[in-house]
């Protein structure tokens, strides 16, 4: 139980830090909160609601991991290094994939809701 509490506290600290310092995390956390409300209006059933909110939650999770990678890379060196550039580009690509997934499910579900 103590281990669970400690893990929960660490996660809360990470979320608080990212929310304070990372603009992209703030934007995506707010989008997740608003998206959870909007999804209730456009999702035809509970599984569809989970897909819409899950896609936004995945985007936020990947953004948090990307932030962690960037911080670690900057801790290793602030010098321009091709290998660090590749590491950061890979993190950025992961976020892009999640953005594409969100565009697909949200546009698809909104079109379905509007067109019937
Ligand atoms: N130390 C470095 N060496 C080589 N290339 C780097 C280095 N730091 C950043 N880059 C390149 O610049 C890009 C942007 O890096 P940066 O650290 O500014 O992240 P960002 O995408 O602007 O994110 P954020 O605004 O959240 O910090 C990277 O994807 C990478 O291509």
TrEMBL record:
A divalent metal cation binds at residues 22, 70. The active site is at residue 63. GO terms for biological process: phospholipid biosynthetic process. The chain crosses the membrane at residues 90-115. It is found in: Cell membrane. Keywords: ATP-binding, Cell membrane, Kinase, Lipid biosynthesis, Lipid metabolism, Magnesium, Membrane, Metal-binding, Nucleotide-binding, Phospholipid biosynthesis, Phospholipid metabolism, Transferase, Transmembrane, Transmembrane helix. Its cofactor is Mg(2+). GO terms for molecular function: ATP binding; kinase activity; metal ion binding. Its main location: membrane. It is a multi-pass membrane protein. ATP binds at residues 3, 22, 70, 88-89. Mn(2+), Zn(2+), Cd(2+) and Co(2+) support activity to lesser extents. Gene3D superfamilies: 1.10.287.3610. The keyword Transferase applies. Substrate binds at residues 3, 24-28, 63, 92. GO terms for cellular component: plasma membrane. Belongs to the bacterial diacylglycerol kinase family. PANTHER family: DIACYLGLYCEROL KINASE (PTHR34299:SF1). This is Diacylglycerol kinase.
């Amino acid at each position: 139980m103590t281990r669970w509490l400690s893990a929960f506290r660490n996660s809360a600290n990470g979320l608080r830090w990212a929310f304070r310092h990372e603009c992209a995390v703030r934007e995506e956390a707010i989008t997740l909160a608003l998206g959870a409300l909007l999804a209730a209006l456009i999702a035809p059933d509970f599984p569809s609601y989970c897909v819409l909110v899950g896609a936004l939650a995945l985007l936020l999770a990947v953004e948090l991991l990307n932030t962690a990678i960037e911080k670690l890379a900057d801790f290793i060196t602030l010098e321009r290094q091709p290998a660090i550039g590749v590491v950061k580009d890979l993190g950025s690509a992961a976020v892009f994939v999640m953005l594409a997934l969100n565009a697909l499910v949200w546009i698809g579900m909104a079109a379905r809701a509007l067109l019937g």
